Amino acid sequence: MVALLLILGLGGLAALYSERLHPGLPRWMSLAVCALALLCLLPTAGASGVAPGTWLQHLRVDWLPRLGISFELGLDGLSWLLVALSLLLGLIAVASSWDEIDFRPGLFQANLLWTLTGVCGVFLALDLVLFFLFWEVMLVPMYLLIAIWGHEDRARAAMKFFIFTQASGLLMLVAIVTLAVTVGAGGQLSFSYFDLLGGALEPRTAYLLMLGFFLAFAVKLPAFPFHTWLPDAHTQAPTAGSVLLAGILLKTGAYGLLRFCLPLFPQASAEFAPVAVALGAAGVIYGAVLAFAQRDFKRLVAYSSVSHMGFVLLGLYAFNALAVQGSIMQMVAHGVSTAALFMMAGALQHRLHTRDMARMGGLWAQAPRMGACALFFAVASLGLPGLGNFVAEFLVLAGLFAVRPWMTLLAALGLITAAIYALWMIQRTFQGPAREELSPTDFGAREMLAMAAMMFALLWLGLYPQPVLDIARPVVDHLLQFDFSVREAL
Amino acid sequence: MNLIALVPALPLLSATALMVTTGRLPRRLVAWLGAGSVGLAALCTALVAAAYGDAGGPYTVHLWTWFAVGGLEPGIAFYVDGLALVMMSVITGVGFLIHLYSIEFMGEDASFSRYFAYMNLFVGAMLILVMADNLLLLYLGWEGVGLCSYLLVGFWYRDPANGAAARKAFVVTRVGDTAMILGLFLLFTQLHTLQIQPLMAAAADEWAGGGWLPTLAALLLLGGAVGKSAQLPLHTWLPDAMAGPTPVSALIHAATMVTAGVYLIARTHTLFLLSPAALGAVAWIGVLTLLLAACAALAQRDIKRILAYSTISQIGYMFLALGVGAFAPGVFHLVTHAFFKALLFLAAGAIIHCLHHEHDIFRMGGLRTRLPLVFWVFLIGAAALAALPFTAGFYSKDAILLSAWEADPWLWTGGLLGALLTGIYSFRLIFVVFFGEATHEPDRRPGWKMALPLSLLALLSLTGGAISLPLAPAFPVSTGHAVNHTVEYIGIAVPLLGLGIAYLFFLGRQLPVDALAGRGVGARLRRFWQRGWGFDTLYQVLWVTPYRALAHLLRGEPVDALYNLLAALCRQGHRGLAALQTGALRWYATTLTFALVVVIAIVLRGAM
């Protein structure tokens, strides 16, 4: 685990300086670093549990013992899945920005790798201070990616992204410190996840602390109505930035809810569940309606992300195996399908110098391979059975139906609205009369390779998702041991 | 039985091969792959069917477990009984003939390979639908055929109207599908399985007949069936779906996909039998649909739209049969309808093919002598559609009407009225298209690849009534009532009456059709029917316009206004405070003194 983080972090440095040797070198460095990190990760999949419960790997080194802060990392099925997804999408992100970046390619790749470092750290950290540290680490390079290599309105979008995340992160910091102080009162102060689990808390305190965590994660997820940074950030970010942002950074929010918010405050979460589920359902519908309203290809995909991440929120707050597994599936499947759609957006912009769909149309004739790829990921996005997103959405809704049938009905409307925006997108870009002024070159071998890999992944997730479910299963079982029933008010 | 798994696998493999090669294969090979894979699947089906007769008993094939979470363990697994076998035979058999026909029909199309890729994908998905052993896998096939329908309706993507029709087909059926998946959730939550046979057994065991749970579950499934089978109130997509190539209409929008709803209800009939209310809803939806669609068919001018409305109407008959508990006659009508409606569509396609893409029947005329083969097969198809005695359609429709009479004479009356209208519009089509004066000269004749499927389907439309389907163990045995002969004679006479009326109106011209439909109320009614009873307008006002308006309203992201307000407040605060920082020492000293006085005043006041 440490090796993995070191490879990514130092790889970033190496990429930064390799630029001096040759401007084409950093992207190869990035690819190599991601591949190497992936190699580090692979053997751990089969490792047996080392630490308590479900952990594949666990590491704890004292850092600031007087304050109870340690360098504690842990890898379980959930972390494994998300780290693997991050690294794979890292490869995709590098591939998608292959010849898009001319300005300071070394710095670009370094920021890319540092973002990945932060993300992987978030997925591995088990000390809450360390977690917060990584949470901030992934923020800064992402900010730079948007602010330096973004599109026309990049400064504002980057600032908005930064302020939203930072403000909510501060709430989480306050909650973390309060939690550690409250639980550790009279004894040894500790920020370790395991020491904080099951800590005795006043219901009122627990509720407030839970809200602190929830807000930070809900902004990142993003849940309605904290999502407004996302369309701007996505639209303005360079392709690789969008791929990382949608594919992985959003998942840190979901991961945080699953890892920290729910197990640390089971009772408070149960009380809060109606609100969370309502926000999730609202996000599903709202995101889909707004996606339909967009003219900008990237904004459309961004809003579809809001819609899809609503399903994650729904699943997590249903508190049963079906729905939580569905949420985890949705994280993985959405990571792949949205990354592909952003790559498509980047490819279109690179070729046509516009993201405005009103100026596209009939592209299928000139670029059938692009059209076929776009169609594939559009139908994945609308939840076609046989592809990963369907399994995820089905599990979430099936699980939710058992506890909240009316909310399920509302969220299921999202299946219809998703069909509307996804097909409308295909119509406006690839179908309709061909325009003579547009003559994009079709996908080449490099792009097709990336697309084919993601198609294969979605088909695999859609037809035989069992390996993913099996990896995540101990985590889900562990989570569901907590008591999520609402206690009667005394 | 590896043969069983091969049946859907062959077309799917061929579709994959065609998609991966993205049109780089030579046309000949594409044709062989496209039609050949379906032909082989038909052969496999025939072998399975032959063995089924000997060995008996349903086959189950478990390929792998899709996923297993929280008690839900749907398999990629097939369950082949008589009902599934009947459906498989129709899909692969009729499907093969249509593929063969397509080789010639689509011969000059630039996207030949893409066409066959979609068609094969469709056949594969449809086979999965009817062979699935659990409702989730059925849903996979269900959505898969919906996707293929979307792709094929919008096949000629350059015309935005085709794209709109394709999206309409997908979205309208998705509305039904969403109801259906909610039904799946309900069934799983209550009965803890989605595997069809155990599920039906559990429903029969645990649910009392007539309770609200079985009714709700059945109605939700019915929602899916209504969408896919283009019944009221979700039928509006089918007439527009005629924008696709004509063999597509024959395969998807006549013979197979649109009857998936009938299959679904037949497959889950145990559940429907638990709920008389839901069953009644099925019957009445069927009757209303068959009447409304038959009237609409009377007023159309486009040959494919006539056939589309006729399909809606005929599926209405199938729903009527299911609703009165006559499951076997309903499925029987599904089969005969697949024969004669595929025949009619293919024949219409031959006309369109030979007549420079002409769709308007009033610009055809006199084709009897110019396209004799097409005339004869079309005549046979129309006779079967109208259920004239001794055609295949006669046997199946007769059985449905008799069952309807036993259940409720009102339902029977509706069905009978529909039969009259069917007779009129079928022969209106024949008389207008094939008789009268020729206005257009066909520029070619259908070749053997078109003629052979037409002839075979014509043969089946004539003799299909004699086929006995192996449905007996799948459905409850109907109590053999004594056949009421008067009812039977009326059933035979009414289609003939329809034929006679059509003759008087459109060929003999004894009755003034133009005077009737050209002025006043008649003209208004004709236009109303031509617009399909105004459903499209209604839905436009009810759903489409409000949704667009909502999207337009939200486009500016109203939620952001809140955050912008916050940002504006901060900026104002910044301006206000920045204004204080003037750099003038005198101003600082004044404010400092003043503030000190205020503070001291407050402190003193507090101390007192």
Number of structurally distinct domains of chain B: 2
**Average pLDDT over all residues of chain A:** 85
- The structure class of chain A reads mainly alpha
How much helix is in the residues of chain B? Answer: over 70%
Main sheet summary of chain A: 2 strands, antiparallel
| Coarse morphology of chain B | globular
What is the total tally of β strands of chain A?
2
Q: Give the biggest sheet of chain B.
A: 2 strands, antiparallel
Shape of chain A: globular
First and last CA, distance of chain B: 100 Å
- Beta-strand percent range of chain A: under 5%
Structural features:
heterodimer, A: mainly alpha, 3% strand, B: mainly alpha, 2 domains, two-stranded antiparallel ribbon, NADHpl_OxRdtase_5_subgr (chain B), transmembrane helix (chain B)
What does this structure look like?
The complex is a heterodimer of chains A (490) and B (608). By secondary structure, chain A is mainly α. Chain A has one domain (2-479). Chain A contains 20 helices and 2 strands. Chain A has a two-stranded antiparallel sheet. The radius of gyration of chain A is 22 Å and the shape is globular. Mean pLDDT of chain A is 85; it is low at 48-52. A two-stranded antiparallel sheet of chain B has the order 1-2. Chain B is built from 26 helices and 2 strands. With 608 residues, chain B is mostly helical. The model of chain B has no long low-confidence stretch (mean pLDDT 87). Chain B has 2 domains: 2-363 and 374-472 and 481-511, no CATH class; 514-556, no CATH class. In chain B, helix 1 packs antiparallel against helix 2 (27-55), helix 13 packs across helix 23 and helix 14 packs antiparallel against helix 15 (327-354).
